[in-house]
Amino acid sequence: MYAVIETGGKQYRIERQDVIDIERLPGRDPEQQELIFDQVLMVGDGEDVKVGCPVVSGATVKALCLGEVRGPKLIVFKKKKRKGYRRKNGHRQDLLRVRIQDIAT
Predict the structure, then answer these.
(1) Is the model's pLDDT at 54 over the cut of 90?
(2) Biggest alpha carbon–alpha carbon distance for the chain
């Protein structure tokens, strides 16, 4: 069984026991270990596929929080030709690592 969920402005295709890195959730209690995603866009189980409009009603995905991680470093380089203008900057996104526990329809 698989599902497509939306969180942090991105969509993820997930299955049970998948470990994914998502955008850090604002307002989440650091003590909270279990997360519930209710923005389920699609649920599939072999030939049986339910597509939401925009979400599948009653479908939820339970996940276990494994901790906060940092994404890969991205280099931001700005340059204007013939002007001597160069700026180099870096960015690392804060992410939340979760393991998918259950997909309920």
Answers:
(1) yes
(2) 60
